[in-house]
Amino acid sequence: MMVANMIEDSSDARQASSQPAWAELVDKIKQNDTTGLEELYRVFSRGVRFYLCKQLGPQDLDDRVHDTFLTVAQAIQRGDLREPERLMGYVRTIVRRQIAAQIEENVQSRKHEIDLDWGLAVRDAGSDPEQIAIQSQSEDIARKVLKSIAPRDREVLIRFYLEEQTAEQICGEMSLTETQFRLLKSRAKARFGKLGKRKVTRRLVPFSEIRWPSITLKGWRKS
Amino acid sequence: MLLPKKEAAMQFEAARHASDEVLEQYAMGRLDAGAVQALEEHLLICSGCQDNLTFADAYQKSMRNAALELRRQSSAQATPHGKKWFRGLVGLPKPVWILGMAALALLVATESRWPLIHSSVAQPALVLLESKRGAESPLNSSTPAAKPFTLVLDLTALPPFPQYRLEIVDAAGRAVVGSTAAPANNELRATVAKGLPAGMYYVRVYAPGPELLREYGFPVGN
Hints:
The complex is a heterodimer of chains A (223) and B (222). Chain A is built from ten helices and one strand, in the order αβααααααααα. By secondary structure, chain A is mainly α. In chain A, helix 4 packs across helix 6 (87-115), helix 5 packs across helix 6 (87-115) and helix 7 crosses helix 10 (178-199). Chain A has helices at residues 2-6, 13-16, 22-30, 34-56, 61-78, 87-115, 129-148, 151-161, 167-173, 178-199; one strand at residues 7-8. In chain A, 66% of the residues lie in helices and 1% in strands. Chain B is α/β, with parallel strands linked by helices and 222 residues long. Chain B has helices spanning 20-27, 33-45, 47-90, 94-110; strands at 17-18, 125-129, 143-144, 149-154, 164-170, 175-181, 187-192, 199-206, 212-221. The longest helix of chain B is centred in the N-terminal third of the chain and has 44 residues, at 47-90. At the A-B interface, helix 1, strand 1, helix 2, helix 4 and helix 6 of A face strand 1, helix 1, helix 2, helix 3 and strand 8 of B.
């Protein structure tokens, strides 16, 4: 019952069920079948892009996605993926390695750039003005939500979101039931959504609705 | 009864979405490693959950920053309140003062080891370091220069270790502070008691060995 509470059916979710049979897909890629590569790209491109963008930001995103697909395809062809059913986990591992490698590269390049002593040609590390404006509006709304509720409810939310206390701890110390705690959180979230509807959601484009340029696999070579 | 973390470690079946609660726990770095793996694999193929996670991230970050600001405001208001209390004390009639002084003198006479009173010990500022940002685009909160601060590092998606090594380097890559810390609730906390001079700094998190796991950037202001 608890697990059932945490995952939800929806018609949209059924789209996710259209995932291919992994073994068949892996087999196609091993045989250098172009349709296999296309399917691999179709299934994972948005997710890989999302994950990379979330962890590393939008810089060089296309190149990184491309590199990831080449790595995955080549690894499958080499026979590195022994259990085709674990393809999702394998792709995730490769994406995580790419992220770790990118961070390491950033650290090294920063060291070298400093050693060259070219003066301070430091890249602007801040957000772009639009991101700053969106974040600022979002925080205004959150502040309004927190100010509009009873002090006790505000304390619950501050403990949860700022002090990162566990739900158990908050409920125990503030004599709340699990249901009361969840209701409080969901009402605050609903109010945030309602207040932000006019300001923020108009400007935020869901990740899935962004039109990304298509990437060809021209650079791909069978190893 | 509340959901224990391990309950979240379900396999995400086809035709199922992650609930808002799971996404919130993930955004806050509170899912355990098994659940994180299952969710991240699901996120690779589910655009609906990607959108929901984007919203959960934005909401959680906004609430946290707003709560931090409200907490700072209420702390700032606490000082004038203290003065008001003191003014009220001064306004008390003389006999009360005389009795009070007598009690104080009695206490001093009987207590040879008068305990030290630490007045207004400065609370270190919180610097929240999150994992969801570009490697070259640190969006973390800042802290004033030369003031104590506590780093709160989000360990989302990092391999679990009993202890991590931390290193703070300046913009030139020179190590300025080094320490080790044990995680709690999927975060690391480390206090820099003397603070740092103004500038851009990077916190590096290492595995117990030499492997660099993550780097966070944060500015120290004037």
